[in-house]
Specification:
Order of helices and strands: HEEEEEHEHEEEEEE
Largest sheet: 7 strands, antiparallel
CATH superfamily: Electron Transport, Fmn-binding Protein, Chain A
Helix content: 10-25%
Strand content: 35-45%
Structural class: mainly beta
CATH architecture: Roll
Oligomer: single chain
CATH class: Mainly Beta
Number of helices: 3
């Protein structure tokens, strides 16, 4: 006779989340995610960007990636109109920049943490890696969008420890798996 798994106990009332939006928000806060910044220019040539935790590789050949964003986000009009974006992979040394790029849109490019890069797009300084990407598809889903990009170029900075977003804060993992 095979092994019969034990029944999983029902969650206590304190652990149960009753509505869909709360369940989604609370659960995803507990999912640690890598941190990146997506930058582009708006149609008037102003730098725009945002901190993202939704970056994912899609295929190696051709090199495709995706990121998600709300279509109500202040950077959406620029991303919706963009031909190219720069994806910046952040490290522990970029914690402050992650906060700046998730703050008020009008303050995201104040300071010397960036310079014009390929196609004049905002290129963040001192990041572990960056990729120039051409937008190939935008898929509207409910109030959000899945943006598919093809990587065309990139560069490496110095090595750095990872940074993750978890429970509404940025952390550097310290315990190896």
């Amino acid at each position: 006779m095979g092994h019969v798994p034990e029944a999983v106990p029902a969650p206590s009332p304190a652990e149960r989340i009753v509505d869909d939006v709360s369940a989604f928000k609370i659960a995803f806060r507990r999912l640690a995610a890598g941190v990146s910044v997506i930058t582009t220019l708006d149609p008037e040539g102003r730098p725009r960007g945002f901190t993202a935790t939704s970056l994912a590789s899609l295929a190696a050949v051709p090199p495709l990636a995706t990121f998600n964003m709300a279509r109500t986000a202040s950077t959406w009009p620029a991303v919706d109109a963009a031909e190219h974006v720069i994806i910046h992979l952040l490290g522990a040394a970029n914690r402050e920049v992650a906060g700046i790029l998730s703050g008020p849109q009008e303050k995201r490019f104040e300071g010397d943490h960036w310079a014009p890069g390929p196609h004049g797009l905002p290129l963040l300084k001192n990041v572990p890696a960056w990729m120039l990407a051409r937008v190939v598809e935008r898929h509207h889903v409910a109030g959000g969008a899945v943006v598919v990009v093809q990587i065309e170029d990139g560069g490496l900075g110095g090595p750095d420890d990872a940074i993750v977003y978890h429970e509404r804060a940025y952390f550097t993992p310290s315990i190896p798996a």
